[in-house]
């Protein structure tokens, strides 16, 4: 089962779908204790029903979906290195990305995507700051 499949299947048991990210965070023990306990009970119920029914869920759903790679958890140290590199050069070359990936023991694609996401976050923050300063200066306000 993929994390997405499990999230979708939980909708039948719980009534609401859980995201792939939530399932991943549960697996990596990155949910709060309260949320982990809540999700554990729901997962246990779903698993019991799936096993009882002898259901091979993958046959019913998701056979035509593309397989998703597990979410990569980047260590604090690696994030610090990536952040410092971003401050020096927000658009590293392919060779720079490959070198960083090798040094940090990450896949090249993970480092490449991290830089893309970081540039988007920078853009979002700048836009947000610009808009907030625009409305603070006495320009027309939203009503």
Characterise the protein shown here.
The termini are far apart. The protein is 68% helix and 0% strand. It is mainly α. Helix 1 (3-14) crosses helix 2 and helix 6 (94-104) packs across helix 7 (108-136). It is built from seven helices and no strands.
List the main descriptive attributes of the protein structure presented here.
143 residues; mainly alpha; 7 helices; 68% helix; extended
Give the arrangement of secondary structure elements.
Elements: H1 3-14, H2 20-27, H3 33-52, H4 57-60, H5 76-88, H6 94-104, H7 108-136
Helix pairs in contact: 1-2, 1-3, 6-7
Compact summary:
The chain is mainly α. Helices cover 68% and strands 0% of the residues. The protein is extended.
- Which blocks of ≥5 consecutive residues have pLDDT under 50? none
Tally of separate helices:
7
The structure class reads mainly alpha
> What order do the SSEs take from the amino end to the carboxyl end, as H and E?
HHHHHHH
Q: Please tell me what the overall shape is.
A: extended
Subunit organisation of the chains: single chain
């Amino acid at each position: 089962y993929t994390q997405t499949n499990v999230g979708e299947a939980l909708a039948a048991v719980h009534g609401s779908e859980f995201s792939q990210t939530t399932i991943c965070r549960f697996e990596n023990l990155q949910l709060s204790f309260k949320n982990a306990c809540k999700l554990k009970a729901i997962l246990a119920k779903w698993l019991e029903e799936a096993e009882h029914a002898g259901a091979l869920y993958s046959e019913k759903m998701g056979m035509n979906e593309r397989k998703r790679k597990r979410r990569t958890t980047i260590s604090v140290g690696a994030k610090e290195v990536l952040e410092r590199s971003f401050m020096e050069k927000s658009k590293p070359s392919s060779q720079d990305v490959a070198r960083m990936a090798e040094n940090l023991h990450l896949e090249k694609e993970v480092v490449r995507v991290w830089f893309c996401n970081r540039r988007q976050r920078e853009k979002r923050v700048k836009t947000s700051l610009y808009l907030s300063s625009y409305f603070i200066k006495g320009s027309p306000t939203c009503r």
